[in-house]
Amino acid sequence: MLKVRHLEIFRAVVKAGSVSAAARLLYVSQPAVTKTLRILEEEIGLTLFLRVKGRLVCTPEAEAILPEIERLFGSVQSIAETAREIQQGQRGSIRVATVSMLATTIVARAVGEFRNTHPYVEFDIRALPTRHVVEYVNNNQADFGILDVAAPSGTLEVEEFCSAELRCVMRAGHPLASRKTITPRLLDNEMLATFGEDTLTGWRLREAFRARGRSFASVFVSNSTPVLCALVREANAVALVDPFALMSRSFPDLISRKLSPAVPVEPRFLFAPGRPHSLIVNQFVAQLKKTAKEMATG
């Protein structure tokens, strides 16, 4: 089998014009270069050089294979550069599985910020239902997943992403807009829009109302925060939702107020157990945390 090192020495002789010059260029002895050329000629069955009037001259056969050798070394150099960029976290690919709410808000903004400093990194962002996010991570179809609720128990490694609380979202001209904090009592006669009781967040919300001695009746139920916010805008509802949609400024005509008692929203990273994380994935996870913090305070 041909050795790249043998081809490298042949290429150096061609470029340097002599065995001695190639030896100096490669920091090897002249006999070592001569021996390597002889071995290479035997391996490929071609005479590579002739001596003409004391000068070493490439044979036509050697000139015919030179373009292929140059392409080979171009590829080798490209591999070395790519490896260096991967090592430095400048190149690679990242596969993320998450729910649509986070995909269109925090994740999208984090990708944009990350690409400013890592322009050669490619992304595959899958917006999926919660169950499918878990499946993607379990099946190694994603480098990691992100859920906007507490992660289900199981074999996956779970890491905190950010902390948030449900917000009370309404039109800017709503009578409750003058309040800094909204309590269950203030919502007695409002058309409420929120998540279903079959979701963890929806169940927590209803439990918080029961703890305050208030009944909870929602007129609009959806599993989508943007849908609930749209109902605020179009039907003058009051939505009790996570803060992520408003972080993206998709609803500039709506405002949010603090809800008391607080109902936590717990986004989490999901990782497959025992699977090492690439440098570029770790850097993007750090970017996601940074972006989430900036959006929450901005």
What would the keywords be for this entry?
298 residues, alpha/beta, Arc Repressor Mutant, subunit A, D-Maltodextrin-Binding Protein, domain 2, 3 domains, six-stranded mixed β-sheet, five-stranded mixed β-sheet, 10 helices, 46% helix, rod-shaped, DNA-binding transcription factor activity
Task: Output the CATH homologous superfamily of the largest domain.
Answer: Periplasmic binding protein-like II
N→C terminal distance = 61 Å
CATH topological fold name of the largest domain: D-Maltodextrin-Binding Protein, domain 2
Structural class comes to alpha/beta
How would you state the average pLDDT, rounded? 87
State the CATH class of the largest domain: Alpha Beta
Question: How many distinct folded domains?
Answer: 3
> What global shape is seen?
rod-shaped
Order of helices and strands: HHHEEHEHEHEEEEEEHEHEHEEEH
Rg over CA atoms: 32 Å
Please work out how many helical segments DSSP would assign.
Answer: 10
- Tell me the CATH architecture of the largest domain: 3-Layer(aba) Sandwich
Number of β-strand runs: 15
Portion in strands? 15-25%
**Major pleated sheet:** 6 strands, mixed
Helix content: 40-55%
Strand order of the largest sheet: 9-13-8-12-10-11
